[in-house]
Write a structure and sequence with these properties.
There is one protein chain. By secondary structure, this protein is an alpha+beta fold. The protein folds into three domains: 2-81, RNA polymerase II/Efflux pump adaptor protein, barrel-sandwich hybrid domain (OB fold (Dihydrolipoamide Acetyltransferase, E2P), Beta Barrel); 113-173, no CATH class; 205-421, Chloramphenicol acetyltransferase-like domain (Chloramphenicol Acetyltransferase). The chain has helices at residues 79-98, 108-112, 114-125, 129-138, 156-165, 174-179, 201-216, 229-246, 253-266, 310-326, 331-334, 399-414, 417-421, and strands at 2-6, 16-22, 29-30, 35-40, 45-49, 54-59, 66-68, 72-78, 219-227, 273-275, 278-280, 287-289, 291-293, 296-298, 301-302, 339-343, 362-376, 379-393. The protein has a six-stranded mixed sheet with strand order 9-18-17-16-12-15. It has a four-stranded antiparallel sheet with strand order 1-8-6-3, covered by helices on one side. The chain has a four-stranded antiparallel sheet with strand order 5-4-2-7, with no helix packed on it. Helix 9 packs across helix 12.
């Protein structure tokens, strides 16, 4: 008896998702609670587990389709009976395919042509963009390369190994291209291949929200720089003891989150938001921390950061980073937030103008640390400096407040003792 596979609850106010990838194919054996599909929502990827053990039956939707919560997307033939029935059909199919061979002897070429097409199409469905690019560039048939990835999927290493070993077989369409050696179009020339990949739901949402921020808010960015000498010295002195006691590495983000919380208390407008014709001031600091995930940038929220220690902040950020890489962040962990910190410095950015995360009114951009010549007490010295950028909604934050906010951050980082005595 077939069991329906339905779209699970996706989180508060989320009613639909996009089918990102089928992790199993019809006829594959599945265990109870084993993921069979990945759904993309506006913020996170959600796996759909099998409700029973058995064999995956019919797929009722395709990759890229939009589905609502509770919709039936597939069926599973439950129990051992279903599992044994599927293999029984496979051997019976081969004699049936072989039977027409004599009758088709008069036209061998048309009969043989469709045969390799099916493996190619089946393999193409599961190719990642990087693997697909390699296959296209080298004119390979992916169905003839053994995959070592999950569920037998091809990886980039599989393709490279096949090319290096000389065991990769050219795809069937290649001879047709050789039969007409006319002057190649520019797009067919070596090194000029193009690839069209549909935007993920997450990327579409990021694009829409950032454009909305530019259209709806009066965004302005102000800059300052900060001498990182004191924080670097403190980190070097205490990092081993810190990690031994708290089980997490001492980074720079803990200092900046604490400094931001102090500055937000002094300049509450940066921690506020506009709702209609009202300004909502927040007495708490829910800091959104921009984290890079495989499918794009996500911003999990450190709740009540103003009441947390640097160790607690570092632990929370570390947990968020791990979840982002694994794709297990939940909607609840990314909902809300009153202020955002984005650290482009980890990627080498020297300076940027970050875009605010609506409906927030401010975002602090951190950048790479580099030695620069600065004047201290009338002497030119070399110090590790970082540029800070504060983008803010000028509808409610004035330039004076923005500059004062950045100066408060600068003072706290250059003299970390201020973080201890709340000064």
């Amino acid at each position: 008896m077939a069991t329906e596979v339905k779209v699970p609850a996706l989180g508060e106010s989320v009613t639909e998702a996009t089918v990102g990838q089928w992790l199993k194919k019809p006829g594959d054996a599945v265990k109870m609670d084993e993921p069979i599909a990945s759904l993309e929502t506006d913020k996170v990827a959600v796996e759909v587990p099998s409700p029973v053990a058995g064999v995956l039956g019919e797929l009722l939707v395709k990759e890229g389709d939009t589905v609502n919560v509770g919709a039936v997307i597939a069926t599973v033939e439950g129990g051992g009976a279903g599992a044994s029935a599927a293999p029984a059909k496979a051997p019976a199919a081969q004699p049936a395919a072989a039977a027409p061979s004599p009758a088709a002897a008069a036209a061998p070429v048309p009969a043989a042509a469709p045969a390799p097409a099916e493996p190619e199409m089946a393999g193409a469905v599961t190719l990642s963009p990087a693997v697909r690019r390699l296959v296209l560039e080298h004119g390979l048939d992916p169905s003839r390369i053994t995959g070592t990835g999950k569920d037998g999927r091809l990886t980039k290493d599989d393709v490279m190994a096949a090319i290096a070993a000389g065991s990769a077989v050219a795809a069937a369409p290649a001879p047709a291209a050789e039969a007409a050696p006319a002057t190649p179009a520019a797009s067919d020339a070596p090194g000029r291949a193009q690839e069209r990949v549909k935007m993920t739901r997450l990327r579409q949402t990021v694009a829409r929200r950032l454009k909305e921020a530019q259209n709806n808010a009066a965004i302005l960015t102000t800059f300052n720089d900060v001498d990182m000498s004191a924080v670097i010295a403190a980190r070097a002195k205490y990092k081993d003891l810190f990690e031994k006691k708290h089980g997490v590495r001492l980074g720079f983000m803990g200092f900046f989150v604490k400094a931001a919380c102090m500055a937000l208390k002094d300049i509450p407008g940066v921690n506020a938001q506009i709702e209609g014709d009202e300004i909502v001031y927040n007495d708490f600091c829910d800091i959104s921390v921009a984290v890079s995930a495989p499918n794009g940038l996500v911003v999990p929220v450190i709740r009540n950061a103003e009441s947390m220690s640097i160790a607690e902040i570092e632990k929370t950020i570390g947990a968020f980073g791990k979840k982002a890489k694994e794709g297990t962040l939940t909607m609840a962990e990314m909902a809300g937030g009153t202020f955002t910190i984005s650290n482009g410095g980890v990627f080498g950015s020297l300076m940027s103008t970050p875009i605010i995360n609506p409906p927030q009114s401010g975002v602090l951009g951190l950048h790479r640390i580099e030695d620069r010549a600065v004047v201290v007490d009338g002497q030119v010295v070399v110090r590790p400096m970082m540029y800070l950028a504060l983008s803010y909604d000028h509808r409610m934050v004035d330039g004076r407040e923005a500059v004062t906010f950045l100066v408060a951050i600068k003072n706290a980082i250059e003299d970390p003792t201020r973080l201890l005595i709340d000064l």
